[in-house]
Write a structure and sequence with these properties.
Arp2/3 complex 21 kDa subunit ARPC3; globular
Length: about 170
C-alpha cells in the first residue's frame, strides 16, 4: 500500500539527529500552511492540520509545535486565504492550537490517546466558548451563529481524526 522506499526516506529524515529541528519545523510549517490553501473543506483540512500539529510535537517538541500552530493562520490571513471578518478570531485559533499541543505534549508519554483526546477536548471547548463572543462583536447574529458552529463540535472531531492520522504516520515511519 505504501511505497517502502519513500517510507524509509521519510523515516530516515525524521529520526535522524543530524537533520535539524529547524528543517523538520520548516516542513511542518509548510504543510500546515499549504494544506488549508489547497483544500477548502473543514472535514479534510482540519484532520490534516491537526495531524501536522501532533506530529510537530513528536518530532520538534513543544516550542516547535507552538510555532507551527501560530504561523499558518497568520499567513493565511495575510495572504487573503481567510475572510477578513475572521481576523479577530485568529489569536483565539492560535491559543486553541497552543492548548491542544501543550496538553498533548504533557500527556503523550503516559498516554498518547489521553493527550490527543484531552488536547482536542480542551481546544474545542476553548474555541466553543470564545469564538461566538468574538464573532458576535464583528458580524451579524446569523453569520456569527454559522461561524460559532464551525468552531464548536467539528473542532473536536477534526482534532481526534488528526490524532488518528498522526498515529498512522508514526506507526508507518517507526
Amino acid at each position: 500500500m505504501f511505497n517502502t522506499k519513500v517510507i524509509v526516506k521519510v523515516k530516515t529524515v525524521l529520526n535522524n539527529q543530524a537533520v535539524s529541528v529547524t528543517l523538520k519545523l520548516t516542513g511542518f510549517i509548510v504543510m500546515a500552511t499549504v494544506i488549508p490553501a489547497i483544500l477548502h473543506v473543514q472535514w479534510v483540512t482540519g484532520p490534516l492540520v491537526n495531524a501536522v500539529l501532533f506530529l510537530s510535537v513528536i518530532y520538534c517538541g513543544l516550542a516547535g509545535a507552538l510555532i507551527v500552530g501560530m504561523v499558518p493562520s497568520t499567513i493565511a490571513l495575510s495572504a487573503g486565504l481567510l475572510p477578513a471578518l475572521i481576523a479577530p478570531a485568529i489569536p483565539f485559533i492560535i491559543l486553541g492550537n497552543a492548548i491542544m499541543v501543550s496538553v498533548f505534549y504533557l500527556s503523550k508519554k503516559k498516554s498518547f490517546w489521553a493527550g490527543v483526546v484531552g488536547g482536542g477536548v480542551l481546544k474545542s471547548a476553548f474555541l466553543f466558548l470564545t469564538i461566538p463572543v468574538i464573532a458576535g462583536l464583528v458580524v451579524k447574529p446569523a453569520i456569527a451563529q454559522k461561524v460559532a458552529l464551525m468552531f464548536s463540535w467539528p473542532q473536536l472531531i477534526t482534532a481526534l481524526a488528526g490524532g488518528v492520522l498522526a498515529v498512522g504516520v508514526v506507526s508507518v515511519i517507526n
